[in-house]
Design a protein that fits this description.
With 654 residues, the protein is of the alpha+beta class. It has 4 domains: 9-45, no CATH class; 49-241, Threonyl-tRNA Synthetase, Chain A, domain 2 (2-Layer Sandwich); 268-545, BirA Bifunctional Protein, domain 2 (2-Layer Sandwich), CATH 3.30.930; 559-651, 3-Layer(aba) Sandwich (Rossmann fold), CATH 3.40.50.800. Helices cover 34% and strands 26% of the residues. It contains 21 helices and 33 strands. The strands form 9 sheets. An 8-stranded mixed sheet has the order 14-20-21-28-25-24-22-23, sandwiched between helices. Strands 4, 5, 6, 10 and 11 form a 5-stranded antiparallel sheet that branches. A 5-stranded mixed sheet has the order 30-29-31-32-33, with helices on both faces. Helix 15 (448-464) links the parallel strand 22 and strand 23. The longest helix is centred in the first third of the chain and has 22 residues, at 49-70. The radius of gyration is 30 Å and the shape is globular.
């Protein structure tokens, strides 16, 4: 809709209580701001993505007001909205305690119920400095206004392009400002719209502007929703996510661990976790064989020159472990007789695969050449981002590099995308969208024309898949654009899975060639493809997706036999032996626990199938099935029971 000059969003949407800000020619504005004549206006509701962001940012201001009531000496940092919530940083003498958070929630509720107004005012820099005279961090932000986008974490929330603005929390009765903050906004019309659907979730240490060289502050996280029901649903999702945390389940199910003696980000897999990992890898290997991939193996370390050629030392050095300088020889007087060389743990497999391609002459008849490796790589992730299996320093990539002609390029990309989507579905993930990462203008190698062609081709392949395609400007690796498969898990969380990168540049840098049909020497096109991303990360995702209750074909123990009494142990061992002969991972529980405890243990261990046998079963040559959901199927003949389990595992149906 369009309006006349001077009309405000509040006047325009006065009948719409759910509209909290206006979108004016694409830009969000407070409802009390006059609207320009002829502008295209849209009401933004509180439950929309933009409306939720405004709600959460406004709640962050209320929290900061409460903090400075509780601790008057607290100095304000930055308080932006984030996914599902918000945070605010404070410089305080003592860290916040759980009791502080509970007290702050009560104080926030009082502020909310006062129905304070959020009022925007445009100020000069001098006026802003006067208003923020007791806030040193805000004064620092004012000095960064002209380069806010590069200044650090969250700076654009406070200052940036355009006017300098301050938001006052105004007492509705007196009309006085009771608290204010440097902020670009927009905000809700009033605090009452926050209602009682918010919660403070935790506190932690944080560095000013996200830089570890800066002052350490205290950060409080919170969440806010349009209704109490939505808040409760979110809290239930968070509780379920905590129950599914792969680090917790890994310990409970004895799958993997993270020994301090090894160092951060270096997991070990226990026998049960090893079974799951082997099952994943074995199935992947077979699918790759069927799809025409050839297996290669490369070392874990290499001379640094290899990564000078590839460009990784120029563009990726910070993500690599430091060099090991070896092979130097010294004379008796300490002078160098033979200089040493720098060796690096490999962060990527692609340069080594290029050496395999280059090891002999290649013909167009060999293309496409698909090289595959479960290759161990090492990346120096900062300690603050290492997280369980999903962010590690040592990992195994299911890495493939496909070399093809330009004519084969699009067809090969389509086959590759279909291959990875099909394989991900086999592991139980089936809700996808695609992300197209394009050139970072500050970090790339090669010619613009080659990048344009590669990006255009990837976009066509992605669009033809029928999946939603989301742009990721500047997110590509330095050597080429990529498609990322984004998969949603059982909780609706999105994980980046497979990546497909199209690369004209590394073949050029490594001088890769093949003899074309006309006898000329030509460069191949290179497709980088990781399916799981890393085996470790994929296993962490699957552990949370299934809440540890892996489908039978992946479960470390697929069947547990539980005799009702010791007299039936031999009978149950015979049943389990038949299952083992059919390739099923089965065992008998002959512990001293009572029968009900054995059933509970099998449930706690998330065993897919529990077989029970007592007197009637033994006489009838049968067993009773007990499933994960507690249901039971009694009197199933042993041969039928074995076949049911074999079929379920072979067909990956449970």
């Amino acid at each position: 809709m369009k309006v006349t000059t001077g009309t405000t969003g509040a006047e325009l949407f006065f009948e719409r209580r759910d509209v909290v800000v206006a979108r004016v020619d694409g830009e969000l504005k407070d409802l009390d701001q006059p609207l320009p004549e002829g502008a295209e206006i849209e009401g933004v509701t509180i439950d929309s993505p933009d409306g939720l962001n405004v709600l959460r940012h406004s709640t962050a201001h209320v929290m900061a007001q409460a903090v400075q009531q509780l601790r008057p000496d607290a100095k304000l940092g930055i308080g932006p909205y984030i996914t599902d919530g918000f945070y605010f940083d404070f410089d305080v003498e003592e860290p916040f305690t759980p009791e502080d958070l509970r007290q702050l929630e009560k104080m926030m509720l009082k502020i909310v119920n006062q129905n304070q107004k959020f009022v925007r005012r445009v100020v000069s820099e001098d006026e802003a400095r006067e208003a923020m005279t007791d806030e040193p961090y805000k004064l620092e932000l004012l000095g960064k206004k002209n380069d806010a986008a590069e200044a650090g974490e969250g700076v654009n929330v406070e200052v940036g392009a355009g006017d300098i603005t301050i938001y006052d929390n105004v007492d509705r009765k007196s009309g006085d400002s009771v608290w204010c903050d440097l902020c670009r906004g927009p905000h809700l019309p009033n605090t009452k719209l926050i209602s009682n659907a918010f919660a403070l979730t935790r506190s932690s240490a944080a560095y000013w502007l996200g830089n570890q060289n800066n002052q350490q502050l205290q950060r409080i996280y919170g969440t806010a929703w349009p209704t109490k029901e939505a808040l409760k649903a979110y809290q239930e999702r968070i509780a379920e996510a905590e129950r599914r945390d792969h680090r917790k389940l890994g310990a409970e199910l004895d799958l993997f661990s993270f020994p301090d003696e090894l160092g951060s980000g270096l997991p070990v897999f226990h026998p049960k976790g090893g079974i799951i990992r082997k099952a994943m890898e074995d199935y992947s290997r077979q699918r790759h064989v069927d799809a025409g991939y050839e297996f290669v193996y490369t070392p874990h370390i290499t001379k640094g020159h290899l990564y000078e050629v590839s460009g990784h030392l120029d563009w990726y050095r910070e993500g690599m472990f430091p060099a090991m300088h070896i092979d130097a020889e010294l004379n008796e007087d300490g002078t160098v007789r033979k200089p040493g060389q720098d060796y690096y743990l490999k962060p990527m497999n692609c340069p080594m695969h290029n050496l395999i391609f280059r090891s002999r002459g290649r013909s167009y008849r060999e293309l496409p050449l698909r090289l595959f490796e479960f290759g161990s790589v090492y990346r120096y992730e900062k300690s603050g981002v290492v997280h369980g299996l999903t962010r590690v320093r040592g990992m195994t990539q299911d890495d493939a590099h496909i070399y093809c002609t330009r004519e084969q390029m699009k067809d090969e990309l389509t086959k590759t995308l279909n291959f990875v989507l099909g394989l991900l579905k086999d592991y139980g993930l089936d809700d996808f969208y695609l992300e197209l990462s394009t050139k970072d203008p500050e970090k790339y190698v090669g010619e613009d024309a080659a990048w344009d062609e590669a990006t255009r081709t990837l976009a066509e392949v992605a669009q033809e898949s029928g999946l939603e395609l989301v742009p990721d400007p500047g997110g590509a690796a330095f050597y080429g654009p990529k498609i990322s498969v984004q998969a949603k898990d059982a909780l609706g969380r999105t994980w980046q899975m497979s990546t497909i990168q199209l690369d004209f540049n590394l073949p050029e840098r490594f001088e890769l060639e093949f003899q074309a049909a006309d006898g000329t020497r030509q460069r191949p096109v290179m497709i980088h493809r990781a399916l799981f991303g890393s085996v470790e990360r994929f296993m962490g995702v699957l552990t949370e997706h299934y809440a540890g209750a892996f489908p039978a074909w992946l479960a470390p123990v697929q069947v547990v036999g539980i005799p009702v009494a010791e007299a039936f142990n031999d009978y149950m061992f015979d049943v389990v032996d038949q299952l083992k002969a059919a390739g099923i991972r089965a065992e008998v529980d002959i512990s001293s626990d009572r029968f009900p405890k054995k059933i509970r243990t099998a449930s706690k261990d998330k065993i897919p199938f529990v077989l029970i046998a007592g007197g009637e079963d033994a006489e009838a040559g049968a067993v009773s099935f007990r499933f994960r959901d507690g249901s039971q199927d009694n009197g199933v003949p042993v041969a039928e029971a074995v076949q049911r389990i074999v079929d379920a595992v072979r067909n990956r149906t449970s």
